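fyi for ur records
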Amino acid sequence: MLWESVKLALRTVQRNVLRSILTLLGIVIGVASVIALVTIGQGATDKVTSDLSKLGSNILLVRPGGGALGPPGGNDSRSFTERDVNDLRDIPGIRAMSGSARSTKTVIFEGSGQSVEVTGAEPGYFETLDWAFTAGGPFSDSDNRGGETHCVVGQTVVNNIIRRDPAVGETIRVDGVPCEVVGVLAVKGNSAFGQDQDLTVIMPLRTFQRRVAGNTRISVITISVATPQDIQDVQAAVADSLRDTRKLPPNVPDDFTVRDMTEMAQALSSTTAVMTGLLGAVAAVSLLVGGIGIMNIMLVSVAERTREIGIRLAIGALGGQVLTQFLVEAIVLCLIGGLIGATLGAAIAFAGSTALGIPFSFDAGVAVLAVAFSGLIGVVFGYFPARRAASLDPIEALRHE
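which gave:
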């Protein structure tokens, strides 16, 4: 009986193709919107997590001031000193660390130039941030102590400015200062904040301070903790050490921030997940609108087929059989719309993910749930018209013109 009702429903759809298409639009748009938005949102979450993981493992970022996520903007009195950095080196649990400062400067090679983020750092900077090399290697401690004009460049600098392979051994000019390239970094891509991490030049901290920045300011201390279990202990020890070296009284708040990048990654991932859920919920509203359209069309169908219903009831069909027929028609319409919407939503999500440069994180479970929900819409909004058809009086239905 149920299969016969399904076949009858499909024949009804074929007989009224245009009306069926218009009826399905609400369901198609609703399901497609839910799947596209959830998939793109999940892709954005995955990209944020991936980008933050590129910064390195078990990272603590120490900055002067209140701790905004952007570039530090403190003055000399708030910046870290060499003593601040050196006093942290004896803290147990630290795998590697480096004080650093940065500034945007013009980098030139044989007449080709571009503005590049130039970083002055200690050799431990590369180990701290898990930087790999495709050519050459990092500068040494003696390079840093002696203020040698050596530098390491990112792949974008090689592609856009140096344009030679190998770039190691070439001499670039950083804000007018000649600097020999001793290493080329492996590609890391864009950061979680949209910055090209490969558009960078890294030189010894003392060289940067003396010849590029013109001051001894250290704006960031980057620390890599040996194990995740040590992060909280190291974070507390770093805070205590800096309070001591900066001579902060007990009643004075920290004039620096020690930020755990793992917590930041979790916070950003949670935020994007919440936004994805909200967008999915908004898109789901259109499914309800589509359900109302289904109910309207089914009511029209009952009115048009009143005489047919009367004949069926007069020759012995039960009210439950009539109810099942119209309910199945509503469910079939919604499921067809759901399947079309799922396909369309996946296509839109793929196109959107490609355009935005984020992973295509299609979740089959979400698609199945959206299609199942569209079937539920058919049950809920198809029941009233089906019930109305089943409750028709056979004699009155046969008189209907």
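The longest strand covers residues 94-109. thats all i got for now
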